[in-house]
Amino acid sequence: MTDILDPPLLTYPVCGVPIAALDASRAAAQIVESAVAGESLQVHLCNAYTLSLVDRDARMRAALLAGDLNLADGAPVAWLGRANGAAGPVRGSVLVGEVWRQGGTHLRHYLYGGKDGVAGAMADALRAITPDAVVAATETPPFRTLTDADLDALVERVRASGANILWIGLGTPRQDYLVHELSESLSMPVVPVGAAFDFWSGAVREAPKLLHGSGFEWVHRLAIEPRRLWRRYLLGNPRFVLTALRHRR
Fold this sequence. Notes:
Layout: E1 11-14, E2 17-20, H1 24-37, E3 41-46, H2 48-52, H3 58-65, E4 69-72, H4 75-79, H5 92-103, E5 108-113, H6 118-127, E6 134-139, H7 148-161, E7 165-169, H8 174-183, E8 189-192, H9 196-201, H10 217-224, H11 226-248
Parallel strand pairs: 3-4, 3-8, 5-6, 5-7, 7-8
Antiparallel strand pairs: 1-2
Helix pairs in contact: 1-5, 3-8, 10-11
């Protein structure tokens, strides 16, 4: 993508990755602008776990460094950008709602993620906000690594649907890999929002609002899904701190 951000996007480095100093509303405006213009936009929502991987996962590092719009998905990442005007964090579920509202009838959304029925339930919840906005298609991904043939077929389905924005909900790092792999083939924003699929569909209960932006939402997530998420938070959070410090030297 070339120079669609005007004025130049203000960023700050976290773990060697440039993070945009945007709140959810301004990030949504950029995504809507790119979608309406039919321009590719590779988006990544970067939380502590995502950034803890950059020194251990070359594929993740390449995806984030190629990103057009890396957003602070988590209070600790946003805190590190306060001196640069960061106003986040940009929570995935909030970003979805902002893009849906701002885009209105100009956008056609493709929802790719979640377990069976989750994307459909998410679409129903979004339609309740703006009934005239369009969900071009919903799809439950296969629970396996996608082959090149799978990727080509997905690109064709997205194009055939008439969508101009693709939302991905696979969880980190798979969704970030996929954003990187698809962005060059699709003239639209490709946005990974992970748990937002579960939150919007009602499959998982979101953290209470008093925890939003506190840096402790992860405690709620861990309490709800301890077997799935304990490694992410109990190992990933300390690793993020060490990685961030190492890159600031």
